[in-house]
């Protein structure tokens, strides 16, 4: 795997939703580094990507309440365990579960394995609430997918929260997750 600055030179073999991410980041003048890779379906591959990017890629979970009336995108450090009960208490939403693939496509235009904060650019109705574990904010950089799991990006945390989120009309709700047994 190689590390590149900015968008791919050849975009003919890229999905439209990935190109839209690069277009928006470029428009917002947000610098980023990128690596291309096989689909990330194992932690070993994620660890290799982390080494290339020199950042821990965030764990991004797409969640909903039992009634499917509230949807959440949770960003947390990749090495932290997710405890449903711990988050449910903080956001006053009992019975959180993973949202369906259909809802991922409907609200974020992403598929399982590609969940990313970049998908919020596709949520024009603000149906998805962004939840961010406070530990994510401690790092200078964030690692994420550009709405597809065959590339990964390294972005400045400040750029994501000060430029990207306001541009896509979303605010982060900060949560405190211990992730302990």
From TrEMBL:
**The protein's name in its UniProt record:** Ala-tRNA(Pro) deacylase
Q: YbaK/aminoacyl-tRNA synthetase-associated domain: from which residue to which, for each copy?
A: 37-160
Which SUPFAM superfamilies does the entry link to? YbaK/ProRS associated domain
Molecular function in Gene Ontology: aminoacyl-tRNA deacylase activity
Q: Which residues cross the membrane?
A: none
Q: Which domain of life is it from?
A: Bacteria
- Entry's family note: Belongs to the PRORSD1 family.
> InterPro entries from the entry?
ProX/PRXD1, YbaK/aa-tRNA-synt-asso_dom_sf, YbaK/aa-tRNA-synth-assoc-dom
